[in-house]
Amino acid sequence: MIGIKSIASYVPAQGLDNYAQGAKFAKDEEFILGKIGSAFLPRKADEQETSDLCVEAANVLFASNPQLSRDAIDALIVVTQNGDEEGLPHTAAIVQHKLGLPTHVAAFDISLGCSGYVYGIYALKGFMEAAGLKNGLLITADPYSKIVDPEDRNTTMLFGDAATATWMGEDAAWTLGKAKFGTDGAGAPHLKVSDGVFFMNGRQVFNFALLKVPAHLHELLGESSLQPGDIDAFCIHQGSAAIVDAVARRFEDDPSKFIKDMLETGNTVSSSIPLLLEKHVLGSDFKRVALSGFGVGLSWGSAIIQRAGQ
What we know:
This protein is of the alpha+beta class. It folds into two domains: about 5-170, Thiolase/Chalcone synthase (Peroxisomal Thiolase, Chain A, domain 1), CATH 3.40.47; about 175-305, Thiolase/Chalcone synthase (Peroxisomal Thiolase, Chain A, domain 1, 3-Layer(aba) Sandwich). Helices cover about 30% and strands about 25% of the residues. The protein contains eight helices and 13 strands. Strand 12 and strand 13 form a beta hairpin. It starts with a strand and ends with a strand.
């Protein structure tokens, strides 16, 4: 059974001081930490492309797992909506070449944002099991710095650049349980790019998350014959401190189980959930964790992962 074996990440060291940005827009520390949740927003270098961020994260993964050779990779998925140049060719092909992966690898992109990691792990698992593949990489990289207007107070204080690489294969420490997904294209105008610039209707996105995510998680638990107490931690997309806090309160169980960690990263889009897993879950004593990603589309996906043998 294919599951999650290891996760590594790359977060650029350079970036933006959100306090300085806050002063520019007359936002105080209480707003920056309480609503936004991020004091620092990492930014890729001007010369770095999305594929370069992918390669950085993957190289950390290989260095951390010397038993995994590049020649052993059978499949590569890159989750991004901001690929190299103008999106053709697909970023995964560029990453395959830069990483020196074998040419027999299946490599393709998934064009999803904040829900992309949950979709991605299930897409890769299903693809690998259907084709009899052994080792796959799921890489997330969505540098919104390429599309955010630095003068737009609704977006420039939220997003940070980062990339993650997840090794999926057999005999994994974490297995994938039940998942649920959803799409409502009627909400597409609330998160979109026009003429190369990102637009977000923050109030509508907040309302969407608050109404959809807690209910979706309860549905997932019910269909899995689980109670909230059976879940050790909830790793949901780190859209903002306000969104994570509001979803945790609306869930009405134990808000402290909802992990919040975006102070030095900001909203990293498809990378936010794997960043939480890498830092807070893989090395923990947790046995069962719920995930939920939500955003552009509008789209959402929730899932339960558990330690092998549970």
